[in-house]
Amino acid sequence: MSNHLTESILNSNVIEKFSKIKISLFFLPLLLLSTILLFLYSHNALSTYKYIEIQKNCFYFINSKLAQFPTIIYNLNHIGDTLIFLSFLSIFIVYAPKVWESLLSATIVAAIFSKLLKAFFSVPRPAAALDNDTFVIIGEKLVGFNSLPSGHSITVFTTISIVMFAFMPNKITNKILWSSIIVVFGLFIAFIRVGVGAHFPLDVVIGCIIGYISALIGILISVNYKIWSWINNKKYYPVFILLFTVFCILLVVKIVEENLIIYYLSIISLIVSLYKITHAYIKK
Predict the structure, then answer these.
(1) Comparing C-alpha atoms, which of 269, 237, 266, 242 is closest to residue 252?
(2) 8-state DSSP, 145
(3) Angle in degrees, 0-180, between the axes of helices 201-224 and 97-121, rounded to the nearest 10
(4) How far is CA 7 from each of CA 84, 93, 95, 235, 272, rounded to the nearest angstrom?
(5) How far is CA 90 from the centre of its chain?
(6) Are residues 146 and 168 in contact, defined by beta-carbon separation less than 8 angstroms?
(7) Rounded Cα gap, residues 199 and 210, in angstroms
(8) Distances in whole angstroms, Cα of residue 170 to Cα of each of 19, 166, 173, 175, 179
(9) What whole-number distance in Å separates Cα of residue 113 and Cα of residue 116?
(10) At what angle do helices 151-166 and 201-224 cross, to 10 degrees?
């Protein structure tokens, strides 16, 4: 009974937090995007060549510093993968399904933004635009013309922004501290894409802003529409039991291919979630 009460209270708190999301929260990210655009315009860097040229030195600096820790950043780089971040957030299906309602809508919005913007800008990846001997590439060498914006950065900031708003403290000083910790963590994870040689710095910054906007849209959709309300119904738990079981199998395959710590942590998170969901379904 107490466990069920905890679940209900936590989810109710998340719903309350999400209900406070206002349209005015879009002003800051739109202002930041406008500032970046004006910066590029003022430096005559709206062309692909100039866009790359103006941030080349910054790219080399960040890449060289982060690449000193290849094992760490290669593991953290995978947090931007959908399979990984969904695994870490899987427990919220039981305790705060409203987080997943927002996450699903936001993920779809983020995917649309990412696909359309990458196709529109068609900026070459660092490995396609620069001499590969001048910087470090960790992991897969990406040479496509889809560098802007960074899809991983969009994913990371979509996810952490939803978590940030879901568990936002009430006290203003705690709000500032909580938000700062989340944003700094997100930026660190996002800039790892520069460290592995997959993106330019502005690809990452713009991706983070797009991710934040996607999160806000996802939350507003979940508040105003009941598209995913079935997630809170325990009779649909077998869907998630099956989904997370498939995730576990995929992670086992990845562990066989690449023995990374991040995969073990993800699968542990999934196993805990599977236990909780199965237990809740049996007790419904």
Answers:
(1) 266
(2) S
(3) 140
(4) 23, 10, 4, 16, 16
(5) 14
(6) no
(7) 15
(8) 14, 12, 9, 7, 12
(9) 5
(10) 40
Low-confidence ranges of the chain (pLDDT < 70): 1-7, 284
Name residue, tokens 């899987």. Answer: 90
State how far the alpha carbon of 183 is from the alpha carbons of 71, 80, 104, 105, 163, in Å. 23, 15, 21, 21, 11
The whole-angstrom separation of Cα 280 and Cα 236 is 11
Long-range pairs for 66-75: beta carbons < 8 A, 24 or more residues apart = 66/191, 66/192, 66/194, 66/195, 66/196, 67/135, 67/136, 67/138, 67/195, 67/196, 67/197, 70/136, 70/138, 73/138, 73/192, 73/195, 73/196, 74/138, 74/139, 74/196, 74/260, 75/260, 75/261, 75/262
pLDDT value at position 1?
46
**pLDDT score for 5:** 54
What pLDDT, on a 0 to 100 scale, did the predictor assign at position 93? 93
Residue corresponding to tokens 């790359």: 52
Amino acid at 65: K
- pLDDT number for residue 9: 87
pLDDT at 80: 86
Residue type, 110: A
pLDDT of residue 8: 78
